[in-house]
Amino acid sequence: MKQPENVREPGKRHLPLTGCLNLRELGGYATADGKLTRWRTLLRGDSLHKLSLESQQAIIDYGVKTIIDLRTISEVNKKPYILSSSPEIGYFNLPLLEEDNFPQLWAKKTLFKHNCFMLEERSPQIKEILSVIATQQTAFVIHCAAGKDRTGIIIALLLAIANVPVATIAQDYALSEKYVSPLYATIQEQAIEEGFAHILLSPPEAIIDTFNYLDEHYGGINEYLQAIGMDKLQIEHLQNILIN
Questions:
Q1: pLDDT tens for residues 60-103?
Q2: 236: domain CATH number?
Q3: Domain total in the chain
Q4: N or C: which end of the chain has fewer CB within 10 A?
């Protein structure tokens, strides 16, 4: 697949802060109708629990006003949110998955099937997450542990709401593999031996297949969102937040 122009230089999107690996800006993506996603509005990332003091200040200085943490309660308890002393930033822990979902996901063997599980089995959580985003101040950081799969599906939906082409969304998703590879380096051999090596990857086809699934089963992104209980005004509000 040819890489779209607007994801050709991921280094300009990557925010290399000490304490996280995969914090990325999502502004400047071209939409299908010739607009651009807003800069300093939506960021995706891995867990922020190890941010240095300098990096914490950089997050504040960047203008971040809302953090959406998709990790489970157990994950947050083990690796707590670190910016709680910053009144400038609103924090929401909105777990997309529960602990007992992970073995179910790993047994499915493909990230496309992971995405389908989240879309179908965790649709109330997706609705809640998107609804909260629609009511909070920008800029947002949306993150999970690696910033790859749970974050990946929410970011994919948001970019689709903004009318960013699927090919661009898929290539943005694929960038995570580069940045989180140090996180997975120590478990790669174990993952291969135990059959969960697929979760270490970020193939763009996983996102392309996911949107094909939404087209085939719902008729598209907007129809899926309405099917899970979001109304047109909420969807339009998200579009207005994300697009110049």
A1: 999 999 999 999 999 999 999 998 778 889 999 999 999 999 88
A2: 3.90.190.10
A3: 1
A4: N
**CA 47 to CA 79: how far, in whole Å?**
8
* pTM of structure: 0.92
Range of the domain at 168: 5-242
The string of pLDDT tens digits covering residues 146-192 is: 999 999 999 999 999 999 999 999 999 999 999 988 877 777 777 66
